[in-house]
Design brief:
Shape: globular
Oligomer: single chain
Largest sheet: none
Number of helices: 11
Structural class: mainly alpha
Order of helices and strands: HHHHHHHHHHH
């Protein structure tokens, strides 16, 4: 019965639930909107999902990174432009991700050319968006709820999202579990979340490429592959994040000087 309901979680599934819950709870108590967005783009949940799925990085992983970028913009547009409440906006964004992932999963060719092509596409989009997007500081906010209420609530949401993990295959690694939590906690500053995703599109594909060829080329253990991926990601992501913070602060100073 548990297998039919997709409730028979493995050890790695529970580990993923724990990690996402911990990061989600941390994001709820951070006041800085950019730091909240950082918790949604560091690839800890992505990495543990990779371990849980047990498949080499492939085309689906690269596509899902871009789909996550689309998800945050769908939530922002629905909530800010269309005035849809935040929870239905998040549900709509998740439904888009699942529907598109389910449609693409049996149709995408998992070849070296398609994998590298999508990685290149993600990287180019990330660079363009990072250079062209507008910058400004968001609203500082943290949850007023005590942690003994907030943490179990987040754990319940994450556990619910895990029910569709096995349906998503390689798309699971960038499934917006953390982004959905952070979207709610950043509902007053969704622009910061959107501005952070290009950093993942820049660093993520290079991490995916390294991880794929360390695994299928050298046959390294998944945990070693993941550690190497994290090191490369951090090397690229950290200076980009500092530059993003500088641009946000510069835009805020320019705005203040005009007042």
């Amino acid at each position: 019965m548990l297998d039919v309901l997709n409730l028979n979680f493995s050890f790695y599934d529970w580990l993923l639930i724990f990690m996402v819950t911990a990061l989600g709870t941390l994001s709820a108590y951070l006041k800085d909107p950019q730091l909240k967005a950082v918790t949604a783009t560091i690839p800890i949940p992505c990495g543990f999902a990779y371990i849980a799925v047990g498949l080499p990085m492939g085309t689906a992983n690269a596509i899902s990174g871009f789909m996550c970028f689309l998800y945050v913009h769908i939530v922002r547009i629905l909530h800010y432009k269309v005035k849809v409440p935040i929870v239905p906006s998040i549900i709509a964004g998740l439904a888009f991700f699942v529907a598109l992932g389910t449609f693409l999963m049996p149709r995408i060719p998992d070849t070296e050319a398609s994998f590298l092509g999508v990685c290149a596409f993600d990287f180019i989009v990330g660079v363009i968006m990072f250079q062209k997007q507008s910058y400004k500081s968001g609203v500082r906010y943290k949850t007023p709820l005590p942690i003994y209420i907030k943490a179990p609530a987040i754990a319940g949401v994450v556990s619910g999202l895990m029910l569709i993990k096995r349906l998503m295959g390689g798309f699971c690694t960038s499934f917006p579990m953390m982004n959905s939590i952070v979207s709610y906690e950043s509902r007053y500053s969704l622009g910061d979340q959107c501005r952070q995703l290009p950093l993942f599109l820049i660093a993520g594909p290079l991490m995916f490429i390294e991880m794929r060829y360390l695994e299928i080329g050298l046959g390294l253990n998944h945990w070693i592959v993941l550690l190497c991926g994290y090191i490369l990601f951090a090397t690229i992501y950290w200076p980009l994040n500092k530059e993003l913070k500088r641009r946000n602060e510069q835009a805020e100073k320019a705005y203040s000087s005009r007042q």
